[in-house]
Write a structure and sequence with these properties.
The complex is a heterodimer of chains A (about 625) and B (about 300). By secondary structure, chain A is an alpha/beta fold. Chain B has two domains: about 5-190 and about 285-295, HUPs (Rossmann fold, 3-Layer(aba) Sandwich); about 200-280, no CATH class. The chains are: A alpha/beta (about 625), B alpha/beta (about 300).
Chain lengths: ~625, ~300
């Protein structure tokens, strides 16, 4: 094993030479809680002599103090590094461990088994070449075993080692082992997309079949875990795929040099090759492949390089350089698989940000086609995805991006979903294919424009967007405002929350998802009104910052005037014009804004109105003054 | 492709992502071997251009004199934009590890000094040379590690980090620490230094040096600020250092390793881990996690 090679003591130069040529294998250990993942890794580190004396002695002290193995060493304590993990005896976040053998260097992602930390498990799986899935021999295949296997397969891991652990507790029974293996295979055949499953009977605690073959399982003729890791062939698909390099950064140290820096995601490239820049489709030839060590005639997947082109064409961060003869696609609408990773549920209709390789775009999630129940693998109808749920939906972007399907090329088909307000990574997405429908619908160019329609009415069109709690006074102010505008000879229209819900939006309820869709539609309608040259007044609670931001983003700057009717909840509740607060308090109305559903205060509204200080009349005048000055 | 090639390409990719997306990045430079590797990788990442961000050293005033010499020489040779920050409050107080104790000294000069400097220059992303194999809580940390406006790390609430797509979005005042060497091991670092002939501080190599022994730890008498106890006289011993920090807090090991292969050989045959020479980790098992939450690198 690694640190006990005789060469170290006798011929360090030869040892270094051999270490230099080792390849890298990344693997993940997963499975349900208490299946012994951390114990297995601790055992592998121990057996491959990766533990130092001081680490071992502190491990022994800890094992006695907080271990779960009595007087024995609790290997799990080696990898559970966070204080909270050691206290609770569980793994919360993925930990990375390193060891090497004579042939390879390994990076192990040790991932949490608890369902609530599935997103951390997906983090570990996304970079793995191989997965070790542990099953407790006493427990058999559990929900979490299936969930993890499904995610591992979904993110493209092709080779799985199935470790049936704790075999010492079932007297090393071949029957128990065989039963679990066939149960797992049955599941895998129907649900997963794997190339190989290699089962091994082990006891991580006792060390059976981890490094050395165990005498306790004479009926087993396969490889031990370590033998498997040393020899498993990781399909070299990426090298065989078409050339793709996402441009990270344009290197322009002086006026003479303009290079495009990036990590080659797949395939290989030679100087002189014709390449296409996507999206867009400009072509050129590779002039040089620049590295610190000197120029290269060719470069392959996995290398970070800087490329220069023969022609002065427009290339910037987010573009993909692909081989001209075999380019990727480009589109702005896709079907994708989504794994949701946030405590707040996914909201179809809401805008998020997408990041794929180095490309970014605004993303709108469409209606869910279905959710996948990873226990039964059934496709279930669903309106939203909760934390750790997987679903399939259509997505649309505000611009075209270059892509391949995830199953063809992970870099080109994988993306993350970022919340625009919290900036958190809230989901992982895998592109299945592009939807062709948007390609055939071209934007119709009209000769009569918004400007000419507005000119005819001698006015500047605006969207005046009221937001505030129920009973804050939005509709009263809107009503007076419209009357005043009309008397000034302006052409107006008011969209009112209650009225719209009787018609256009009568299919929508009051769940968070429906509220998002409600506002999306109102935003689009308001935009049409604006296009027709009108001053459009909208009066909706519109409680979420992201939907208001979306409505704003549909039109040009200055055209959108956000009016925050800032009436304290206690005042609204006291007024309770429609008697709704009383009902909400008694539980008759669920999801009532301010009571059982949040209202996010606007951070920078154009106008803020305090109705405890000024009248509705004065408020309307204030708004008119604002838009006249604008 | 060998594992070192893969690690190099990954680190370069990470650095370029930061430069493309950050507003005002900085590279923290501790003058140690990991910093030397980071610097070398940064030169490669932006070649033929210059390194497009400043390099910052948080000086505690108690670094080995050879480290400071090496720092200034490197900055000059590589034409670096070097910032040196010393916590002015600590300097005023005459902060030192003897009268104030090692943990107070480290907190004031290193942790507080770092936070001060990041605020002062309004850096939004800071590269650090930490590796996941160093310590248990580091093994859990993301490559892009998010900090609140108070520089705090919340280990229980880290952003998922999928594939090699890094989410660098943050609100004003928040910052990100980025660790391009996350997946490197100590052996990888040494081997890379060896293969790429990267210059390092000579203290890593064995030489006869004046030391005193205290509580079983060999301390270098680097200058006359080290108060000698009664009857204590410096002895000349062949020693070297496995990690470099403040000289009164870094224990030397007796060694005859005068070349890189010999250092690596000793490292592979040794039976204690790298950080053992550092007094800071001994306080309690979760001490590093706690320090990191408070803003230590």
């Amino acid at each position: 094993m690694s640190h006990i090679s005789n060469l170290i003591a006798t011929d360090i130069d030869s040892y270094l030479k051999s270490h230099e040529e080792k390849s890298l294998l990344r693997f993940i250990t997963c499975g349900s809680v208490d299946d012994g993942k951390s114990t297995l890794i601790g055992r592998m580190l121990y057996e491959s002599h990766m533990l130092f004396d001081d680490q071992l002695s502190s491990l022994k002290t800890d094992s006695k103090k907080i271990g779960t193995q009595g007087e024995e060493i609790d290997f799990a304590l080696l990898v559970d590094g966070l204080a909270a993990e050691r206290e609770q005896g569980i793994t919360i976040d993925v930990a990375y461990r390193f060891f090497s053998t004579d042939k390879r260097k390994y990076i192990v992602a040790d991932t949490p088994g608890h369902e609530e930390y599935t997103r951390n498990m997906a983090t570990g799986a996304s970079t793995a070449d191989v997965a070790i899935i542990l099953v407790d021999a006493e427990q058999g295949v559990l929900t979490q075993t299936r969930r993890h296997s499904f995610i591992v397969s979904m993110v493209g891991v092709k080779n799985v080692l199935l470790a049936i652990n704790k075999l010492d507790l079932v007297e090393y029974s071949q029957q128990v082992y065989d039963d679990i293996v066939s149960e797992y295979r049955e599941f895998a055949d129907s649900a997963l997309n794997l190339e190989s499953i290699t089962p091994v009977p082990i006891s991580a605690l006792m060390g059976d079949n981890v490094v050395n073959k165990s005498e306790n399982t004479p009926w087993f003729n396969g490889q031990t875990i370590m033998q498997y890791l040393e020899t498993v062939e990781v399909s070299n698909q990426k090298a065989l795929q078409s050339f793709r390099m996402p441009v990270q950064w344009v290197n322009r140290p002086n006026s003479k040099f303009r290079g495009f820096s990036g990590l080659i995601a797949s395939g290989e490239i030679n100087t002189g090759d014709e390449v296409r820049i996507l999206p867009g489709g400009n072509t050129s030839h590779i002039k040089s492949i620049v590295t610190w060590e000197g120029e290269l005639p060719k470069a392959k997947v996995g290398k970070s390089v800087t490329i220069t082109l023969e022609d002065e064409i427009d290339v910037s961060r987010g573009d993909i350089i692909a081989l001209s003869s075999d380019p990727c696609g480009e589109a702005d609408q896709f079907q994708a698989r989504i794994l949701w990773m946030n405590n707040d549920a996914m909201m179809p209709g809401r805008q998020y940000l997408l990041k794929s390789s180095t490309q970014s775009a605004t993303l709108t999630l469409g209606k869910l086609k279905h959710r996948i129940d990873v226990n039964t693998l059934d496709h279930l109808p669903a309106k939203t995805l909760e934390l750790n749920e997987i679903g399939v939906c259509n997505i649309s972007l505000d611009k075209r991006i270059a892509f391949d399907s995830y199953d063809d090329n992970q870099t080109m088909g994988g993306f993350i979903i970022v919340d625009r307000l919290s900036n958190n990574t809230v989901g992982m997405g895998l592109i299945d294919f592009a939807l062709r429908r948007s390609e055939n619908i071209h934007w119709q160019k009209m000769d009569v424009s918004q400007d000419s329609r507005a000119e005819q009415k001698s006015q500047t069109p605006r969207i005046i967007w009221f937001t505030g709690l129920s009973g804050s006074g939005k509709s009263s102010i809107a009503n007076i405002l419209e009357k005043k505008l009309q008397s000034l000879g302006k052409h107006t229209i008011t969209l009112d929350g209650d009225n719209i819900r009787h018609g256009l939006n009568r299919d929508l309820g009051f769940t968070e998802a429906d509220r998002v869709e409600n506002i999306r539609r109102v935003g689009e309608v308001a935009k049409l009104m604006l296009n027709s040259g009108l001053i459009c007044i909208t009066s909706f609670i519109s409680p979420f910052e992201s939907e208001r931001a979306m409505a704003r983003s549909l039109v040009s700057e200055n055209e959108f005037v956000e009016v925050f009717v800032d009436t304290p909840l206690s005042v609204c509740e006291e007024r309770d014009v429609k008697g709704l607060y009383a009902k909400a308090r008694s539980g008759e109305i669920p999801n009532f804004t301010g009571i059982s559903s949040p209202f996010e205060d606007p951070k920078n509204p154009e106008i803020r109105i305090d109705t405890t200080k000024i009248s509705a009349e004065e408020a309307a005048n204030q708004i008119i003054e604002f838009i006249t000055k604008q | 492709m060998s594992h070192l090639d893969a690690l190099e390409a990954e680190a370069i990719h990470i650095m370029r992502e930061v430069v493309a997306e950050a507003e005002n990045p900085v590279m923290l430079y501790s003058i140690g071997k990991d910093s030397s590797v980071m610097l070398h990788l940064a030169r490669k990442a932006f070649y033929p251009g210059k390194i497009p961000f400043p390099i910052m050293h948080i000086d505690t005033m108690w670094k080995f004199s050879e480290m400071i010499e090496f720092r200034d020489k490197t900055a000059k040779e590589l034409d670096l934009d070097l910032i040196v920050h010393i916590n002015p409050i600590g300097k005023e107080m005459g902060m030192n590890p003897f009268t104030h104790g090692s943990s107070k000294h480290t907190d004031m000069m290193k942790t507080q000094g770092l936070k001060q400097a990041l605020d002062k220059y309004e850096f939004d992303v800071a590269f650090g040379g930490a590796r996941r194999d160093e310590e248990k809580s580091r093994a859990k940390e993301r490559i892009f590690s998010f900090r609140t406006s108070k520089h705090r790390w919340d280990p229980k609430n880290q952003r998922p980090e999928l594939w090699n797509i890094f989410n660098s979005r943050k609100n004003k005042g928040e910052s990100i620490r980025v660790f391009p060497l996350s997946n490197w091991t100590e052996l990888d670092i040494w081997q890379y230094i060896h293969l790429e002939k990267i210059p390092i501080v000579p203290l890593y190599l064995s030489k006869k040096r004046p030391v005193v022994e205290r509580d079983g730890v060999l301390i270098l008498v680097d200058d006359d600020r080290l108060p000698l106890e009664e009857g204590e006289t410096p002895m000349m011993k062949s020693v070297r250092f496995r990690t470099l920090g403040c000289y009164p807090l870094s224990g030397a090991v007796e060694s005859e390793a005068t070349t890189l292969p010999k250092i690596i050989q000793e490292m592979l045959l040794t039976t204690t881990s790298e950080r053992q020479g550092r007094t800071i980790d001994h306080d309690s098992n979760a001490s590093m996690e706690k320090k990191k939450q408070e803003g230590y690198f």
